[in-house]
Amino acid sequence: xxxxxxxxxxxxxxxxxxxxxTGEHRVSPAHLLLALLxxxxxxxxxxxxxxxxxxDWRGAxxxxxxxxxxxxxxxxxxxxxxxxxxxxxxxxxxxxxxxVVAPQHILLALLTLAQKEAAGDLRRLLARLPTPLEVxxxxxLALPLPAADSRREGxxxxxxxxxREMIQRAQEADFRSxxxxxxxxxxxxxxxxxxxxxxGDLEPLVYGRLTGETVDEAEKHLLLTQLLALALHRxx
Length: 236
Prior knowledge:
Largest sheet: 2 strands, parallel
Structural class: mainly alpha
Strand order of the largest sheet: 1-4
Helix content: 55-70%
CATH superfamily of the largest domain: Clp, N-terminal domain
Mean pLDDT: 75
Order of helices and strands: EHEHHHEHEHHHHHHH
Distance between the termini: 28 Å
Number of strands: 4
């Protein structure tokens, strides 16, 4: 099963922020599209080059947001269409034989949804692009496949902030909520993202997970494998 790379996980985080910024309490495909514009790398850059404007799209979504009081729950709910996008992204990654699900697969899934169904806000946002969707799709397909353990030099401050908030939210939920990554996934995000400033914050978590009696052998093996991959990268 493919895992989401660190940039794809940031898409989820940014999508939640966008849902709140546009006055909604649900993460829809349109919010995933806005989140892609905030993500470093190919998918976001292709959208910007195609004429996408984060300010314009935010304004359009905010104008269409339903009026009324916001729900009292803390975390925005993920709509069925947004879940379908993520399932389609994973399937597209498998078809491309990609080792991870990356933002480019999420963008391809959004374009697929917009072409096949009456996708509402998503279709209206994409219709604002001067670039035809088929041309955009061809450009996304031309992007190189992401590597399993690709590491970037120097994450932006926004990305570091988002990662810290993701870790904090997961810790507050004791890693038990389906809406947050597990302990092993959090560590994998840090080790594969190149977010060196966050490694120190993870030391107690890593030590506790490797020495705790309640951790099964499979999770210990995963953590040790991720740590070994980081050590090999540093020695290269």
